Amino acid sequence: MKAHRLRGMIRHALNIWGIWVVLFALILGVAGILHPGIGNNAALIFLGIAAILLLLLGIFTQQIRPAKALIDAARNLSQKDIVDLKAGVADLSQGNLSTRLAVQTEPLRVSAQEEWGDLVHGMNRMIEQLQETAEEFNNLTETPCLRLCYVGADSFLEGQKCGDVLGEAVGGRGQIAISSGSFQHSGLELRRKGFESVLRQKYPDME
């Protein structure tokens, strides 16, 4: 916490220092134009310095802002949302069928800068996948009841078995299309994910 606060103070001080330098250069440049004794060349030099410093400050601000947003999002995911997910799964395994999950981290605004845009897209995909996981988890615990256990087929294992059968049938190569009655139903989604997991692990040449 102290290190984070120190970095913030240093960044704030640098911003203030940069603003004062720009103002000083602008004042000297304007004074040179208004006061012939200083000379037009010197005035133009000071105005040029002010313009360059303003440009550098703008670039610095554009670089820092998306980086800070990414760091904040990663911190929220690791310290809050993923911790809550682990706790929710633990509660469910202990028989608490009423536990709920809510992902607090919001998707980031995509940066216009290409290098930051790729990172932001990757972070947003992680956030969206975590939100989907929380939604599927909540579907399992949405309706309160007195159930003690679940007796039935394992949808994820069904999907894995289907992936194995298909992979062997086509020799582990080729293109496939996935058709589902609903991409919102938890059982169908578990089956689809089991199917895709086998293809990724055992049949990477299939698309």
Care to describe what's here?
The protein is mostly helical. It is flat, with a radius of gyration of 28 Å. It has five helices and no strands. It has two domains: 2-140; 155-202, no CATH class. Helix 1 (2-34) packs antiparallel against helix 2, helix 2 (40-93) packs parallel to helix 3 and helix 4 packs across helix 5 (186-202).
In whole angstroms, the N-to-C terminal distance is 47 Å
Which outline best applies?
flat
Main β-sheet description: none
Instruction: Report the uncertain regions.
Output: 1-6
What gyration radius follows from the Cα positions, in whole Å?
Answer: 28 Å
Number of helices: 5
* Beta-strand percentage range: under 5%
Order of helices and strands: HHHHH
Count of individual beta strands: 0
Helix share of residues?
over 70%
Structural class: mainly alpha
Q: What average pLDDT do the residues reach?
A: 69
Overall tally of structural domains: 2
Label this structure with key terms:
207 residues; 2 domains; mainly alpha; flat
Concise structural overview:
With 207 residues, this protein is mostly helical.
Q: Topology of this protein?
A:
Elements (H helix, E strand, L loop, with lengths): L1 H33 L5 H54 L20 H27 L14 H15 L16 H17 L5
Helix pairs in contact: 1-2, 2-3, 4-5
